Please model this.
Amino acid sequence: MRLRSRLAIRCAKLTSWLIKKMNRGSGVTLPGYVARIIDPKILSSMSGQIREKTIVTMGTNGKTTTNSILYHALKAEGRKVIINRTGANMMNGIISAFVLATDRHGRLDADYACIEVDEIASVGVLPQLKPDCALLTNISRDQLDRFGEVDITFNKLKTAVTSVPDTKLIINCDDILSYTLATDSGNPYVTYGISEQIFDDISRSEIRESIFCRSCGTKLEYDFFHYGQLGIYHCPNCGLKRPEPDFTASDIVLHDEVYSFEMADMKIDSTARTPYNIYNTLSAYAALCTMHAPMQHFKDMMESFDYGNNREDIFTINGARVQLHLAKNPIGFQQKVSLVLKDKTPKDIIIQINDTYQDGEDISWLWDVDFQYLADANVSTILTNGTRRHDMGLRLKYEDISCGSTTNLRESVERLTKNGTKNLYVIVNYSGLYRTNHMLNELQNTTKGEA
Amino acid sequence: MKLTIGHLYPDLLNLYGDRGNIQCFRKRLEWRGIEAEVIPFLSGDTIDFSGLDIVLLGGGSDREQELVCGYLKEIKQDFKDYVENNGVVLAVCGGYQLLGKYYKTDKKLIEGLDILNITTEWEPERLIRNIILNSPLFDTPVVGFENHGGRTYINDHTPFGKVFYGMGNTGKSGYEGVIYKNVIATYLHGPLLPKNPHVCDYLLEKALKRKYGEDITLKPLPDELEHLANSYITDRYNDKKYVLQETIKRYT
Model:
């Protein structure tokens, strides 16, 4: 290895050690920054040391879950796998994941790397990483203040994948945007998709991207929509249509709050409570097959898989069931509204909306969510919280749904778990997730002690 | 009483929660016991402007705007007559640009409706941030979020407001939007109306007066929450320390 790379790794590790020592956060991006300043080509030289395959996961929704499935599937086969930590999906976070995984001599000991990549960062990351496969979950509107328009996201991803023409794409062909990206790019690709209607009306939302044919501009016709612009489409003018997917999930059944389904000859009794997690499982399955990765333990691993990864956690506080959910864009929030409606028992809801850079400073997307359904969701109390709690309140007001607001989340959770319906949903957007998770954990532990 | 609101091309122009403007029109009429009918006109539908009291033209991506442009040609004259006849229009972002003569993007020239004597030119750096205006029409500031690549030159037109914080029409002019007859054209999303009920009521009153005569006035509504949401943004950008912090963050 080059001396320069070794020095970069040393310094990155020292930085990480210092951050931890000084208790200044988890130190997942700064070490990468330091390493890159010393050796701009560090990522290329690191990824070259992966023995088997490198796969990146990109797209608007489902990145983290899908990447986590890939990681656990490969671990279940006894392989050594590198993964970047949740949210650390920009250049520096990815470099950190590699350099901090090296041994004392700065060498990597890994069979696979499963790397989640932010859409904007993808343009810089992919040419250096040169992944064998790139999995694309879907493309829809997300943080428009960062991305501008969905077409800009589309073009970034396209630039990224065309810069690595040998990388095989794993594409959701129910998504016209992803499918067009694949056919335009010239990269080799395989497709996955679901041909059954598994999403209900509520989770579907009216807001769609690009239901106009990208080659001729004609309005696409749909047999049905999954959600957003995902569905079974064809163009009545030029003949473009959703292809028969190479990988599919079928016989999808919801039973006792969880889904079972079949992929090829494998039946999975999953722990997935939401239909989009079937997509995540299917896409990971398609990617593993495409990489010719071993899959003897895939079924067992999947059937005990925790889809939550801190984004959908359940706590018991003061004897009440408290669910924490992340909702950071309209499609994601719509799915949560649908989930809330499936629960027929009385409930309280707290919604926290912040507008930091991480969250997206533009919170107008709240108006793209169909909140009117909450009027019939057997909700006792709704409280809004976060910097933009009044905007959230207004959104509900204009559906004639009454709500209060709070600036003290912890106190509200304590009060509602003691005196409320004993069934509390806490829905937060990105920046509040870890703090809230931590706070709920703490409350769970303290009330356990009291009981 | 009843108002009919035409929502133009929601299948193409539906960015940034702009349908919240429709919801705001609708609810603020209903809460006052006035009937509201919303008619969505999809691309290709024929539009009879004589039956409309308010027209909303929202924003879309550059690609979708180009598609809209084709449909606009068919309604150009009718739309123009409606505006000259004091018809009420709210045009946001892409809709604002389309009211002008043209929008020149990096690749193409998109022809507009030529209702306003304005032109828009694309520049690579998008203007994206919270924005606050002081408009001579209102005592309360107008707050929103702007996100546009186009720079709009408004020539002799009256701007909608003076920029207190944000970029506005060109990022340099210090002004934002256009007011012409009963048209408000602006870059402000948010969506615009829920946090600015004064703007919503202004347009509703214009439409009611046009239809039912000048002596119509609107009953005030309890707008505490609207004012809290509005003043949260104005307070934030009145705080010099916050503005400095945000500026530093933006450029690092």
